[in-house]
Specification:
The protein is mainly alpha-helical and 128 residues long. The protein folds into 2 domains: 65 residues; 58 residues. Helices cover 78% and strands 0% of the residues. It starts with a helix and ends in a 9-residue tail after the last helix.
């Protein structure tokens, strides 16, 4: 197995863990908020996201990709930033309505980012 394939496997695994953790933390905040006080629950998402980013950087270096030459990759990064902002509002918003709306929008943004990654097109789910 070459290094790119290994980095991609780590990246995809971390993506799955990241979205599962986000959904779990959102659910816990609503139904079991005391679990969010545990250090591991606060720290592990950051560890996973660091591995996710590191694997992405390794893939960029190995493949010698330039983000500016690949519109789909730039769209994926912008989508990720939007997802992060929405995630913050989903987990820390002032009202239940704001948190729920941000959660749904974050999930839709996540789906867009995944579809862009799979289709290698800015159009994401609408790519032909």
């Amino acid at each position: 197995m070459n290094a790119f394939v290994l980095a991609k496997m780590v990246h995809v695994t971390c993506v799955a863990v990241s979205i599962a953790g986000f959904v779990a933390r959102f659910s816990a905040a609503r139904f079991w908020p005391e679990i969010l006080r545990y250090r591991a629950v606060r720290v592990l998402p950051h560890v996973n996201d660091t591995l996710l980013l590191a694997a992405a950087i390794v893939m960029l270096i190995i493949a010698r990709w330039n983000v500016l030459d690949m519109p789909w990759l730039l769209a994926k990064i912008v989508g990720l930033l939007v997802y992060i902002v929405l995630g913050v509002f989903a987990l820390r918003g002032r009202s239940a309505r704001v948190r729920a709306s941000a959660f749904v929008c974050a999930l839709l943004t996540f789906a867009y980012v995944v579809s862009v990654a799979l289709s290698k097109s800015v159009a994401g789910p609408f790519a032909g």
